[in-house]
Amino acid sequence: ERPMHGPPCRWSLAEHKLTAPSLEVAKEWVATISAALALCHDRPRNLLVFLNPFSGAKRARQVWEGAAMPIFQRARIKYAVVETQAPDHARDMLASMKADELAQYQGVVAVGGDGVFQECMIGLLAQRARGGAHAAVAARIRLGHIPGGS
User: Fold this and answer.
1) Is the pLDDT of residue 30 over 90?
2) Which of 20, 31, 37, 65 is an S-S bond match for 26, by CB 3.0 to 4.6 Å?
3) Gap between the Cα atoms of 111 and 56, Å rounded
4) H or E stretch including 115?
5) For residues 116 and 133, is the Cβ–Cβ distance under 8 A?
6) Which of 34-48, 50-64, 87-101 has the weakest average pLDDT?
7) How confident is the model at residue 16 (pLDDT cuts 50, 70, 90)?
């Protein structure tokens, strides 16, 4: 049980070395772990990342490249990164995507301040408002925020 007041949860990259008594046992461990991961059907495998290099203290690229991207790579999560070029870039891009384009992603991640997160949320809500296949696809997209603004 997590205490009500305490340090915030922080994810970090960690490496754990296991020593197997034989190569056969090591291969069995790899197969078991791989099979367990394969059972995680809701685990995101492909994400669309919007990076706002202009937000706040302009740390979004540093946060992405130094912290988030290595974790995604180690987790073997594919991602496409879009650097926003102007206000509403993320919103407009998400709102105008075809349903099959959006369907290739299990989630959208905003790296930057709360503005780029809000743009992503509004873009996904616009997809829901379109109805039909657009609404169905947008309803299953997860939205995440990696703070990189002020």
Assistant:
1) no
2) 20
3) 12
4) helix 114-130
5) no
6) 34-48
7) confident
Task: Give the three-state DSSP class for 44.
Answer: coil
Query: How many residues are given for the chain?
Result: 150
Tell if the pTM clears 0.90, that is, is over it. Answer: no
How many whole angstroms separate alpha carbon 69 and alpha carbon 42? Answer: 20
What domains can be seen in the chain, in order of their start residue? Answer: 42-147 (3.40.50.10330)
Chain Cα centroid distance, residue 118 = 15
Query: Is 114 known to be catalytic?
Result: yes
Q: What's at 45, amino acid-wise?
A: R
Residue-level pLDDT at 52:
95
CB 105 within 8 A of CB 47: yes
Which H or E run includes 121?
helix 114-130
- Per-residue tokens: 50: 């919007």
Question: What would the 3-class secondary structure string for 66-101 be?
Answer: HHHHHHHHHCCCEEEEEECCCCCHHHHHHHHCCHHH
| Mean pLDDT, residues 59-87 | 93
Cα gap 32→23, rounded to integer Å:
14
What does pLDDT average to over the chain?
89
